[in-house]
Amino acid sequence: MKKVIASVLCFAMCAGLMAGCKKDDESKATESTSGTTTESTAATEGSDTEASDTTADTEPTETEGGEETPATGATTADSYGSGDIVIKLYAMSAEVPNMVGSFMATYPDMEAKYKVEYMYCNNDGQGYETKLNAALQAGEGTAPDLYVAEADYILPYSTGDFSGYAAAYEDLIGADVMDKVKAAEIADYTVTLGSNADGKLVALCYQCTGGAFIYRRSIAKEVFGSDDQATVEAAIGAGTQSWDKFLEAAEALKGKGYAIVSGLSDLYQVSEKASLTPWVVDGKFNIDKERTAFIDLAEKVITNDYSNDTGSWGSAWYADMSDESERKVFGWFGPCWLINYVIAGQCKDKASFGDYAVCKPNLGFWWGGSWLFANAQVLDDADKKEFCAKFVEWVTLDTTETGLLYNFANGNYEWTSAKDTVSSGVVLAKADGKMDFLGGQDPFSIFIDATSYASSKCKCSYDADLNGFFQDTVSLYAHGKISKDDVLTKMYDLCEEKGIEVE
């Protein structure tokens, strides 16, 4: 469900984003029509860690939000702290390890008492998941005390086969943890995805990844008469839960020589997360009305030439962001991390920097996020429990100005100076989200509102198998290579291969 970015692109992105910037997962190819990329968490700017040991002779690849992570198969390992008590951490990027460094700088007593040995590698070809699963199964001495999972593959660790390894937050942090969740105004969908089959919280996400529409001001003025948020929202049908107005806007933009989006994958990020039912219900294949609508939407967009027909995380996609393509693109659907760690990096030192703004989308959706777990084994060790409890709470629930959330939102860390939306509504309400890239606009209130539409009901354990295949199959239909009936026929065939019942 991802895309590995070719090394030349990686170099280009690193040059633009090392001054500031994340993502990873089951990358599959450099470029495709589906753009089936993994959900991203926010990136770190440059993701610099202390001296590291990369155990692979390969060039690093770029992750979804721009943060540099090792190439496929590479593992980066190092440590923070000088204490005698060892805490093991597994992650898919340098982001959470960097948080450990900031945590220890905030609490020097923890730095003196503990040594956090971390490992991170990207999830290309499920590389990270494979390492994490093996370590968890190996047990004490090898298993990580803390580990991270992204939205695309969180379910096995929260409710699936590996959920038994996760400590309930109520046992780790305290019986009042749900009161703290409520007080911090943590986004509901992040709590649901981080809860086990018994409804107990076992992980929280430090980001809020509700999505908005990110548009070009100059194009809005030319086509719609104003770059005002309300004007653009009216043009694209913000909040209508429909694509009707959006397609009207696409026709108007086409008439002026612009594409409304870069490619079909940009639209599927919305359709997928706007779905209120998963692919599989009670063991049977199910296709939500939003996914069904995507079939017709894709055909209209391609047939009417409303996009530049790119694939996410490919060279043409980045060229659209950097204004290097023949036809300019009006907008992008995405959360705050897409602005700071992807688009802004592509626009650096270009006229388009500062020519962007954010408005509410036509359909509510979300995209990405990373959840922090503690291994149940730490509950039997008072010292390990002390560190893990304090670190987990500091990262996910602390709303004070010394907590991770406040400083992450305000871009106060050396490893990520970009501002980002966090999971706490309390923190976002007091954070300063003004961004030069957005012409001084503060988009945080828009993203807070976007999060109110975010639902986890679209998720199931078959997402990795079905989402990418569906996008590729719909793309074939949109390009006239198969019939509309063939789309579902091919989905049925795949489901039968996966043991999913088809009615």
Radius of gyration computed on alpha carbons:
22 Å
| Biggest beta-sheet profile | 7 strands, mixed
The number of helical runs is 21
Proper CATH architecture of the largest domain:
3-Layer(aba) Sandwich
Structural class: alpha+beta
* Total strands: 14
Shape: globular
Fraction of helical residues: 25-40%
Give the CA-CA distance, first to last residue.
Answer: 26 Å
CATH class of the largest domain: Alpha Beta
CATH homologous superfamily assignment of the largest domain: Periplasmic binding protein-like II
Taken as a percent bin, the fraction of beta residues is 5-15%
Describe this structure in words.
- The chain is α+β, with helices and mostly antiparallel strands and 503 residues long.
- It has two domains: 7-209 and 368-430, D-Maltodextrin-Binding Protein, domain 2; 212-366 and 456-498, Periplasmic binding protein-like II (D-Maltodextrin-Binding Protein, domain 2).
- Helix content is 40%, strand content 11%.
- It contains 21 helices and 14 strands.
- It has helices spanning 7-17, 95-106, 108-113, 127-138, 155-158, 169-172, 177-183, 188-193, 217-224, 229-236, 244-255, 264-274, 289-303, 315-321, 336-347, 382-396, 404-409, 425-430, 444-451, 463-478, 484-498, and strands at residues 53-54, 61-62, 68-69, 76-80, 85-91, 114-120, 146-150, 203-205, 212-216, 280-281, 284-285, 331-334, 356-359, 370-374.
- The protein has a seven-stranded mixed beta sheet with strand order 1-4-6-5-7-14-8, with helices on both faces. The protein has a three-stranded antiparallel beta sheet with strand order 12-9-13, with helices on both faces.
- A hairpin with a 5-residue loop joins strand 2 (61-62) and strand 3 (68-69).
- Helix 12 (264-274) runs antiparallel to helix 13 (289-303), helix 13 (289-303) runs parallel beside helix 20 and helix 20 (463-478) runs antiparallel to helix 21 (484-498).
- The model is unreliable at 1-71 (pLDDT under 50).
